[in-house]
Every structure is written in structure tokens, then in C-alpha cells.
Fold this sequence. Notes:
The chain has a three-stranded mixed sheet. Strands 1-2 form a two-stranded antiparallel sheet. A two-stranded antiparallel ribbon has the order 3-4. The protein has helices spanning 38-43, 46-50, 55-63, 65-80, 146-152, and strands at residues 2-8, 21-27, 32-33, 36-37, 85-87, 102-106, 111-115. It contains five helices and seven strands. It has a domain at 31-128: CATH 3.30.860.10. By secondary structure, the chain is an alpha+beta fold. The N and C termini lie far apart (75 Å).
Amino acid sequence: MTLKVAFIIWVRRGKDYNNMAQEVTVKTKEQLYRGKPLAELQQMDVREVAKLLPSRSRRSVLRHFDVIEKFIARANTKTEKKKKIKTHNRDLVIVPHLVGLTISVHMGKAFEDIQITHEMIGHRLGEFALTRKQVKHGSAGIGATKSSRAEKK
């Protein structure tokens, strides 16, 4: 996949500024997974894609391919209606058919939006929606330190 970009490169050739515009070709990085382009992977069946995944993901996809296919169909109908795709299914393996979608994954209390990219293929949805927040400690409570005990009495 190549992208042609034309822009002007200013080169000073004495005092003559003629013929300064040059066309430059910029190559974009092709999205590959295990040596196959993303467009080819999206044309494949879910079970065919499973053969390229690591062992644990492959076994999970082969056992639950019907669940994944139902989720893909549901996601396609939701995107046509321009609605959010919400799920509690954190153990769903990401397949190439989901690349480019934004999925709201439940993280225990609320839903977190996740933009699916080609690097996420083979991982699970729950890996990207963390259930635990970083602890932010406030100030110490009354009686927690020696100075606050004196105030308490």
C-alpha cells in the first residue's frame, strides 16, 4: 500500500527558484499478522483464522467459534444502526473481523471503550479493560498519626 504525497521542497539554486516542486512517495506500513495482510484475514472464516493464532487462543476459538461469529454478526448490526457495541464477554478472543471497531467492555462497574487495532488479534477483550484502578491515597484520617491522636483527646 503506497500513498503519494506531493509537497514543495524549497532548494536554493543561486537566485533561481524554478523547478522546486518535487513529488515524494511515502510508503505506509502494511498491517500484517503472521505474514498475512489484514484484508486477506478478514475474508477468511473464523476457524481458518484460528489456525494462525497461538495455541491457547486457537483452542478457545475452535471451541467457541459460534459465540464469536454471533458476536461479529451482532456487532455488524449495531454498527449499521450507529449504536454502541456493549459486552460483558471479557474472555472473547479478538479476531480480524473486529479490527477497526470500538467495543465497550464491562470492567466491573462501568463500560470502557476499546478501539480494536490489528496488534490486538489473538488477545482477549478483558486484557484491555482493566478492572482495578491505581490506588490514590488521600491524607491520613483522624487518629492515624501521633499528632492527630493529641487533637482527638
